[in-house]
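Table S2 (text version). Query chain:
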Amino acid sequence: MIRGDAVESIGEFPIAGGWRTERLEQIELPEGPKSLRVSFINDHYQKDVGDRNLLVQDVILREVVEHEDAFAPLAEVIHPRDGDTVYLSDAMVATIRDDAGIERADLVVDGTPVGSQSQRSGRDGLLVLPIAARSWTPGEHTVAVRVTDQAGNIGESAPRTIRVPEAFPETPTRHARAVHVLERFGFGPDQRQLARILEVGERAWLTEQLETAGDDAAELAALGPALVRFPTASNAYETPRRAIHHAMNTQRPARVRLVLWINNHFSTWVRKVQGDRKWAEYVLYHELGATRFSRLLSASSQSPAMLAYLDQDSSYAGRINENYAREIMELHTLGVDRGYTQHDVTNLARLLTGSLANLEGNPAAGGIAREYNYRFDPALNDGGEMEILGARFETVSRADRYDRVLRAIEILAAHPSTAEHIATKLAQHYVGLPADEGLVVDLTRVFHETGGDLREMLLAILDHEAFWDAMDEPRMRQPLEYALRLSRISEEGDNPWRVGDFLQRCGTQLFDRPTPDGYPEEDEAYADSNAMIQRWSLANDLRWVLASRVPNPVRWTNPEKVENWDQLVVDYLAIGVTGEVLGERSNEAALEYVAALEGNSGERVLALAPFIAQLPEANLK
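Corresponding structure-token output:
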């Protein structure tokens, strides 16, 4: 600092590499005009990188206000609770409030900051800090969160006492259970959802997710930008990316995952039905959400996308097309070889004739007609006598023919084979293959008791022992799940093009399954060499945001000055990508890899990040 003719030093401060705002120490400046001069010395440990320059864009001076009641940051720990078990990996979740804005937060263990730092910069609300506890000694420890606001005020939460066991705990920790729920019901443990589930509990979180309406403000906020970025939904390119963008940004991942399952169950091929019909169908299922299966079946039977895909809109009395009648029995309701005959298929096709999709124009929009709406034409319907699945349908006049269609849909939705078929498919999707027999029996019972309420069925899965036993039986993540997990945990929600192109290269683009059976659940369908190469490519593209999962005090430091730096970096990246530390073999491979890397700490973390995202733990759920 230059004051008059005198040059006075006001301090020396360590500066990490990279482009960022650094908070320096508190200093006292006397009144009067001054000039500021900044000089620097290269860190001695970076001997091989040559001269490094320092570019200063701004120097910001803020007054420190020491009025504790009004301005001191406020922090309260939500998780872990007193007495909780913490083993290897966990998360500190806290609420923070401060009118001045929180600039950073640090995890404090036994009274000492441990490097788990979050740069908040004005974002208040729920805070999540990773806990890498591999080196913690067994026994009791205290944990707290220390927050610093933009004026330099520091506040610390009341400590919580936790227990670190000597060996793997017999009962999963609250954190491990939360990660499992988010992996199977959501798209992985992104920080916002992890914080929420640790705050309110597993069942309350899932109930909250499934009860939210499709026009919830948060959902509209996630859905709106997709419509702006992809305004032309009439093609097969933009429609999938709209849905991808929505899934990347939704705060209701359990609801959206169910909506995607519904779309796959009632699968229609976007390249045949055209994008706008497919998008209207997606929005319809999104609005219905976790409803009764009969409502979904009815919506599907009247969907212009479904009518076009399975040629039902060209099926008339005297000239029937059996495609839809066969698939609604085989795929949508009863299942393959589950109590129906060719006679039932033919009669159902006759009964459904006259179900059409009108192509209409919108006078307010101008241009070509692009709006499709369901219409039943009784003049094109076969109103003759028939029998379907043992139910008699008498000959009726034109005025009563639509009622017969509704009755047939109700019969299919309520059939015992339908209950078991839907229970099996939900068990396969959310738990494992082959479906647990006890779980299928219980879900079938819930289906009958609730009229096929999917919300109650999903809650029953959460409460079932088979779901928790699946923690020891990880499954392969499908390409969409892999991409959404990386995008959401890295908060890379603004690039649906990247995820869409990735799915295209994997051959699993959303809504692009040509056959009506939808994408399969079997793990082996997604483990071919091309799929794995594409995962590596995506992880490499996201290496910068994935590397940010390592706290700055660890990422930008001299590794020689941090005990077990290699292991700490591996653990932070693994927790950031998967929610937990790596298994023994993967951990050894990661340590060998990082030990062989050259460059400074930031460059080594950047190279390690995509490697972690390629390991088995990142590809499993």
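Notes on Table S2: Residues 416-430 form the longest helix (15 residues). The two ends are 56 Å apart (CA to CA).
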